[in-house]
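USER:
Before I trust my own judgement here, I would like a peer's view. Write it directly below this note and I will take it from there.

ASSISTANT:
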Amino acid sequence: MLTPRTSHLIDLALEEDAGLGDITSRAIFPAQHRSTAFIEAGHDLVVCGLEIAAEVFGRVDPALKVKLTAKDGDRVKKGGVVLRVSGPTGALLTAERTALNFMQRLSGIATQARKYAAAVHGTGVRIVDTRKTTPGWRALEKYAVRCGGCFNHRSSLGEHVLIKDNHIAAAGSLTKAVQLCRTEAPHGAKIEVEAKTLAEVKEAVRAGAEVILLDNMTPDQVARAVSVIAGAALIEVSGGVRYETLRNYAQPGVDVISIGALTHSAVAADFSLTLPVKRTGRKS
């Protein structure tokens, strides 16, 4: 994930946090002062963002040497060490918060994704994310979703056609919106249509949609829609799905459940960076 966009995000984060320098570390530690530290998990989690954290340390000072003791996607127990870093103490502490911020956000998403993936294990249903991501962080957050065992929906508006309620309202009808997209969309682009009622489901089938998104339906309504579609299109369920009800929606015939909570509601994972205590002063 060390792409030019990620590099830019690291630059922005370091400028935000240390653009004026680190007056505390600079006051305490001379340039030759060296330390070794480690980052450990504060609870059971799925780790993500390790290479980005390593890049942060190296960006602050190439003299900082990082050793990864886990890899993205690993389950880590509370207290498990995932990274060790050694080098100039001042630089190490300057990089600490930015490195941890990337890890905490991405590991929180990966941990959330693993929980949702486990909930539908054995059903054949894929859990996918949405575009409800932190601006600028979409590629990273979708990477974290994959590290947790879930899958990605489209990453941008240009990837495939998804006709939603506002498109339908402005076009005049669901059928009209599908016809326009069929004419103008690139060759081979799948056409997905959002349907809120069984009447819209039937219209989407007649219009030839390849994917039908069942929006904010109950599990019983989803079951009826699956019977109506009868294999004529892939079926996505979205809206109103909570972790507690997820298994109720993972029914035979449903292919995908999209959940914005994978990214927009993930709680940051807990990590801490620790330097072993150094004792100073004369021996008694």
